[in-house]
Amino acid sequence: MADRGNGNPKPSDTKAPLATNAYAINLDNFRKRLKIFYSHWNDNNNDLWGAADALAIATPPASEDLRYLKSSALNIWLFGYEFPETIMVFMRKQIHFLCSQKKASLLDSVRKSAQKVMDIEIVMHVKAKNDDGTGLMDNMFRAIHSQSNSNDTPIVGHIAREAPEGTLLETWAEKLRNADFQLSDVTNGFSDLFAVKDVSELTNVKKAAFLTSSVMKHFVVPQLERIIDEEKKVSHSSLMEDTEQAILEPARIRVKLKAENVDICYPPIFQSGGQFDLKPSASSNDENLYYDSTSVIICAIGSRYNSYCSNVARTFLFDANAVQIKAYEVLLKAQEAAIGALKPGNKVSAAYQAAVAVVEKDAPTLVANLTKSAGTGIGLEFRESGLSLNAKNDRILKEGMVLNVSLGFQNLMSDTKNSKTEKVSLLLADTVIVGEKAPEVVTSISSKAVKDVAYSFNEDDEEEERPKVKPKVNNVEAFSSKATLRSDNQEMSKEEARRQHQAELARQKNEETARRLAGGGSGMGENQRAVRSTGDLIAYKNVNDLPPPRDLMIQIDQKNEAILLPIYGSMVPFHVATVKSVSSQQDTNRTCYIRIIFNVPGTPFSPHDANSMKFQGSIYLKEVSFRSKDPRHISEVVQIIKTLRRQVASRESERAERATLVTQEKLQLAGAKFKPIRLSDLWIRPPFGGRGRKMTGTLEAHTNGFRYSTSRPDERVDILFGNIKHAFFQPAEKEMITLLHFHLHNHIMVGNRKTKDVQFYVEVMDVVQTLGGGRRSAYDPDEIEEEQRERDRKNKINMDFQNFVNRVNDLWGQPQFKGLVLEFDQPLRELGFHGVPYKTSAFIVPTSSCLVELIETPFLVITLSEIEIVNLERVGLGQKNFDMAIVFKDFKRDVLRIDSIPSTSLDGIKEWLDTTDIKYYESRLNLNWRPILKTITDDPEKFIEDGGWEFLNLEVSDSDSDNSEESDQGYEPSDVQSDSGSDDEDADSESLVESEDDEEEDSEEDSEEEKGKTWEELEREASNADRERGDESDSEEERKRRKMKTSFGKARVPEKRSSSGGLPKRPKLR
Fold it and tell me: Beta strand 94-99 with 121-126: parallel, antiparallel or unpaired?
């Protein structure tokens, strides 16, 4: 690391002249840090610097070994380079250097800066090649005596722990001991000086941390997974060498840092097989990686950027038992507690005490296994003395300090008989910066969550993929796992297991619904949009503002948005918003008529106006017509009125939309030093308004949100991270576009549109029309080349989007966004199905937390956690399609229907719903859900008493009607009768059955009234009546359940004759 540049050079006017030297000292940094150095020395001389009159620092010769010396750290901190075999003596008015001619020529460039900023003289003692330097040392000793403040013996500060190396330093150390000086150790002074980092130092630490965590995430973890998947035998030392090479070549993992500025902090450490050492001095042995069941692998890597260190350590668990999982969860919680205690003003010991408190509370038996400290300070040295995170360190934390928070459990006893797994150790380490308000974990890119480090193997699978994380209960990814579809003893079929799970879900769902309804939590509907009163629309405040009349003809005042009409010789103004419609026509005599109709309260389709209630006695002008001989003028007036009316309506609509928006925080733009994450050439949906040519824009991820903007200054959208409910990334596979989609908590305005869904996309293929006409051959070279170009373009776009998504996910993984739980979700195409959610057929795809359709507009985004139940309707033999009704937990929200789903998708949908713990029911009919939900919310206690959602259970319904002829006949609209003598309107409003045959029913109503009943119908009616009354042996519970089903249209109701002797008129089927 000798003569390595600091990597942050300033412009040429702030550098020393280069001459023939390849190096240049950053004079801005030198001046700033020299001032800090002398200020710290003067302010803390007695406490930290041993009351020294001079500070003598000797830097040893260069070495290939990794070592951390305070003398080298001072060189790099002050000058940006390490100066081997150089002696520096700092005095109050002078700085003396004893070095070679080459080093002296470089150090000579700081002479003017030292004189200017601190009025300090630089004195050079150039040692000849064959000179031992003793004469020059005597000159430096005399200078110390002459500038000493002590009357008798000057006090000289030195770094006592650094043993002299080389002839020059050994001679210097010998003469210093024998000279007439009192020596004092100043190690603590330098430790405190280096503890708080400035902005440029923190930048170096963050770059080093980014490299370290990127190597762990993108190299070490995939490498381990590949070794385990292929069951290779690889030694720890071999892994160490490969990882070290990945650090020294950042381009291998796509990290854009110059290799010449990068180095390792220590050889990477890999440990497994029961041999663990959690000390920083540990090393990787030559044993093979051990990854059998209940084994543990510890990986620790550290890298340096411009000599500034960073560190990260992770523990990976394989088929871990309950003891290991519990210990890891406690360790993770303890480390997070230690990191959380790193706040300015706290004592250093607070971090370790916080970790111990967690272990004592959650796992007191593990306290003895906990490491004796929670880490150390880190920076130019891997372990900065004075900042050890132990229980006794009373130093105060300050903003800008950097710490390596390392915590572990040593030699945990595991309940196994294998000698390589009976003792395991766990270790977690991260690089943390003490911030103004909260600590910043700069190695958070590398995940340490249990789901990302705990692997499990399923040896029974024939096609075993790479080790997978243990799935969460509600994770859709578990859909492909056989364990979720079969019991352990393999005795039950998939359908039986699903039926049992659904029965348990039904019980849980009814209990949950009962609790929510008992607490009045049926949800709140959305607020209705406020309508602006026409009383607020004022064209002129007084008569004097009217424009001077020219002629008695219709005039348009576009500035004041008014129409002036000649009425009885006076020009009467009307605001254009009061106009409902305007039209013109021309008769055979070339006479033109213009007709203006105004909005009048009380007329059909007229918007509600508060003034109609305020001025109930007012008289309104409804319509006015004028005749003219000038058709050109009439045509122009009509056109202007329509244009002006459209503009005002658009403006008022946008104003009303904005009035309901939730106020959001302001977007904080990324600083100049940290460029925002950017994705270019994107289209947006919904598009911006306006009639100009549409333009692509750029999406940027800033400090607390996204900003999309085009080259037009008025086309800009800000999406804050806190307002994002779901984020989706859908690469182009069978579609024409690759997209990013954001579903928001609160509406925002895109142009003049209010929306909760914003999408950014790129078309991966251009629409091309063949001009040649005829069909082209499949072996046409031009055709093949064109297809290859399209594939390459699609792959490049998908890769650009994927890189953007990965970087944003890493950003969201930082501690400040922990509460948002944000991550880009990707649709699972293999679980998708076709259906009609709105008006057109679309391909609907589940994700881990939603059900989405993101190609066709309007978009469909359904949050799975908001679903109460799903009812699969029109399910039966012979049906090609069925419908899905999604009932939300908010009963005031309309039920969402997805129609015309192919029956071939039924089993897949059932399996997906069961895997995601969503209770589903099946019915042969379409239900009218509004009155059902109204009945539930009006009397929730009755709903709960009658069994909750079990009235939808088709199996129970069928079992109750096994002896019925109807149960085998399916749904026949002609059999549905009204159970009361109410009129048609009441019957319509209470009908719970929907049908697609409304027109046919209307045409048959009259004929049905005139017909009498056949013997079969009378027999069926008697059978229905018997079932409705129930046998005497029926239990009370069965009768209640039967009554509940009857009230919701599941069973047939008894038929009643009308007074005319015919069948009563049937209600319309909706």
Answer: parallel
Q: Which two tokens stand for residue 442?
A: 């700069």
Q: Which among 685, 750, 756 is positioned nearest to 714, based on CA atoms?
A: 750
User: How far, in Å, CA of 667 to CA of 721, rounded?
Assistant: 10
Q: Measure the CA–CA gap between 206 and 189, rounded to whole angstroms.
A: 25
Give the residue from 253, 250, 274, 254 showing the smallest Cα distance to 262.
250
CB 1021 within 8 A of CB 975: no
Q: Return the sign of the alpha-carbon dihedral for residues 304, 305, 308, 313.
A: negative
Least confident of 80-94, 231-245, 565-579: 565-579
Write down the residue that tokens 């079992």 correspond to: 959
The pLDDT of residue 555? 85
How much of the chain exceeds pLDDT 90, in percent? Answer: 40
Q: Which residues touch 283 (CB under 8 Å, ≥6 apart)?
A: 267, 269
Eight-state DSSP code of residue 467: -
Kindly state the helix (H) or strand (E) to which residue 138 belongs, with its residue range: helix 134-147
Alpha carbon separation from 695 to 158, 680, 688, 701, 716 (Å, rounded): 66, 12, 10, 20, 12
Query: Which residues share a beta bridge with 683?
Result: 761
Q: Which tokens hold the place of 352?
A: 């370790």
Strands (E), 147-220: 155-158, 182-185
What gap in Å lies between CA 363 and CA 334, rounded to an integer? 11
Per-residue b or e along 271-292, where b marks 16 or more CB atoms closer than 10 Å to that residue's CB: bbbbebebebebebbebbbbbe
Q: How confident is the model at residue 274 (pLDDT cuts 50, 70, 90)?
A: confident
The tally of CA atoms less than 13 A away on the side-chain side of residue 359 is 25
SS3 1002: helix
Asked whether the beta carbons of 919 and 908 are under 8 A apart, the reply is no
- For residue 814, the model assigns a pLDDT of 80
* pLDDT for 131: 85
Closest by CA position to 72, among listed 82, 64, 62: 82
Quick one: pLDDT at residue 962?
Answer: 47
SS3 of residue 147 by DSSP: helix
Give the integer Cα–Cα distance in Å for 487 and 495: 11
Q: For residues 1009 and 791, which has the higher predicted lDDT (pLDDT)?
A: 791
**Tokens 């056109």 label which residue?**
639
54-59/155-158 β-pairing: parallel
Strand order in the sheet with 881-888: 896-902, 881-888, 867-873, 920-922
Distance from C-alpha of 1037 to C-alpha of 830, rounded to nearest angstrom: 43
Q: Which residues pair with 455 in a beta bridge?
A: 318, 469
Question: For residues 269 and 278, what is the distance between their CA atoms, to the nearest angstrom?
Answer: 10
Helical (H) or strand (E) element with 183: strand 182-185
Beta strands 753-763; 677-685: pairing state: antiparallel
Question: Which amino acid, residue 567?
Answer: I
Q: For 947-1013, where are the E strands, in sequence order?
A: 993-994
Q: What is the pLDDT of residues 693-751, one digit of tens each?
A: 788 999 999 988 999 999 888 889 999 998 999 999 999 888 889 999 999 998 898 88
Question: Tens of pLDDT along 880-920?
Answer: 999 999 999 988 889 999 999 999 999 999 999 988 889 99
CA distances from 78 to 28, 72, 121 (A): 10, 10, 16
Structure tokens, 855: 């190609």
Name the 3-class secondary structure at 557: strand
Angstrom distance (rounded) from CA 247 to CA 260? 11
Closest CA to 525 of 815, 892, 863: 892
Residue with tokens 């013997």: 1015
Helix (H, G, I), strand (E, B) or coil at 170: helix
pLDDT at residue number 1029:
54
Express each pLDDT in 548-598 by its tens digit: 777 778 888 888 888 888 888 888 888 888 888 899 888 877 788 899 988
Rank 475-479, 874-878, 1023-1027 by mean pLDDT and report only the highest. 874-878
